[in-house]
Design goal:
Strands 2-3-4-1-5 form a 5-stranded parallel beta sheet, sandwiched between helices. Helix content is 41%, strand content 12%. With 184 residues, it is of the alpha/beta class.
Length: 184
């Protein structure tokens, strides 16, 4: 996903990463951000209220390139983001790529607002939990319809299978150092 994301960043003014909570959206963006890209989370109530009540001031305080975490908390920002994108495109089209990186967990609400406000200006990426191959430590690369997957996943014991099943596919749980006694 990283390669596709960075290629899209060179084309779209905004990118949105959506997925379940705790799947690694913010971590993914932070790990791929350039040093000059600012990060702001809408989780803190005071930050969220500023974004909702005064979107212009919020965006002036957090200019691009910026990561805005949890955009569904302040959909009021979307028309102002659109305005900034259009202004940058009109002034210097070469500079209009990769201005905003957004995250969201509530897919339906985000998609509705994005499709209305940022149509043609945003690339959308779904981030899912880790695959069985990733959990098993098998570095096979992405499965693409025109590419043969790189071989079978190593078999695991029934106990390990149920531990993996119980932990699920969220990165923090998969990489947890908690003893198995807490999981099974």
């Amino acid at each position: 996903m990283r390669t596709a994301f960075l290629e899209a960043n060179a084309f779209f003014p905004a990118l949105l990463v959506i997925g379940a909570r705790q799947v690694g959206k913010t971590t993914f963006l932070r790990n791929n951000a350039e040093p000059e890209r600012h990060f702001v989370s809408l989780d803190p109530l005071d930050v969220r209220m500023q974004a909702k009540e005064d979107p212009r001031l919020f965006l002036a305080n957090n200019p691009p390139p910026v990561i805005i975490d949890e955009i569904p908390y302040a959909p009021e920002l979307l028309p102002y983001i659109k305005q900034i994108i259009d202004e940058v495109r009109n002034q210097d089209p070469e500079r209009a790529q990769g201005l905003f990186w957004l995250t969201g967990s509530r897919q339906f609400g985000v998609m509705k607002g994005v499709s209305e406000s940022l149509a043609g200006r945003i690339g959308i990426f779904n981030l899912y939990g880790l695959s069985a191959a990733e959990i098993g430590g098998c570095d096979r690369g992405a499965f693409l319809p025109d590419k043969e997957p790189g071989g079978p996943i190593d078999p695991v014991s029934p106990r390990e299978f149920f531990v993996r099943l119980w932990r699920g596919s969220f990165p923090e749980l998969v990489t947890s150092n908690q003893p198995e006694k807490y999981w099974v």
